[in-house]
């Protein structure tokens, strides 16, 4: 009576192995889900960056204010009869 139970138990273990550890098993599915969640977070950050760059490009193409602002802050340009004053920030 003991041998058939052991054989059946061994058969169940052999059949369960591919489900848990084989190619496409649960552990690989969990790992793929984790990798997918990480990639979605990276993609979301990149989408936000792309949206801000796209808005900046649109602003530079359509208006002079963005160009003027960049010229003031990056190049230190001023209008005629205007004095440029820069206040250092505390670190």
Automatic annotation (TrEMBL):
Residues 1-3 are cytoplasmic. Essential cell division protein. May link together the upstream cell division proteins, which are predominantly cytoplasmic, with the downstream cell division proteins, which are predominantly periplasmic. Residues 29-70 form a coiled coil. Pfam families: DivIC (PF04977). Signal peptide: none annotated. Keywords: Cell cycle, Cell division, Cell inner membrane, Cell membrane, Coiled coil, Membrane, Transmembrane, Transmembrane helix. One of its GO terms (biological process) is FtsZ-dependent cytokinesis. This is Cell division protein FtsB. Residues 22-91 are periplasmic. It is a single-pass type II membrane protein. It is found in: Cell inner membrane. The gene is ftsB. It comes from the Bacteria. Belongs to the FtsB family. GO terms for cellular component: cell division site; cell septum; plasma membrane. Part of a complex composed of FtsB, FtsL and FtsQ. The lineage of its organism: Bacteria, Pseudomonadati, Pseudomonadota, Betaproteobacteria, Rhodocyclales.
